[in-house]
Each structure stands twice: as C-alpha cells, then as structure tokens.
Amino acid sequence: MPFPIRVCVVCHEEFELRPGKPGFANRCPACSQPEEDAGGAHDAATVDPGAAKEINAARRAAMRNLLYRKDS
Ligand SMILES: [Zn+2]
Fold this sequence. Notes:
This protein is mostly helical. The protein is built from three helices and two strands; from the N terminus they run ββααα. The longest helix has 23 residues, at about 50-70. The structure holds zinc ion. Zinc ion binds near residues 13 and 31.
C-alpha cells in the first residue's frame, strides 16, 4: 500500500509520509533528523550557507585545540 506523498517544507522534496516516521509530518526524513548543531548553526545555514561553514570551521578549530591540549 503506497504511503501518502508530502512535500517537505524545508527542502521542498517529495517524500513518503510513512506511519511512525520520526520528526515532523511536513518534513522529509532527512530534514527531520536532529541537527548536530541544534539551534544556531542550523538557523545560520538557512539564512546564509557560508555562515554555517564558518561556524563549523570554528567548531573544528576549537575541537582541535581541545584535543591538542589533552595530548600535551
Ligand atoms: Zn526535506
């Protein structure tokens, strides 16, 4: 039995609305997945993809600093 087809409100891709699909009923499975950077980074990505890249780079740099500090 086919599932109803919905259009994701985030990426505007069509997807099957399966029973028990996690997340919002009006979002495709990919867009329903919780963002690693919940909140800020995701909002920045919606407004300006470049900003998210910068945030990720900053986070990676901070992570690297932490790791190096742990090693030494
Ligand atoms: Zn989507």
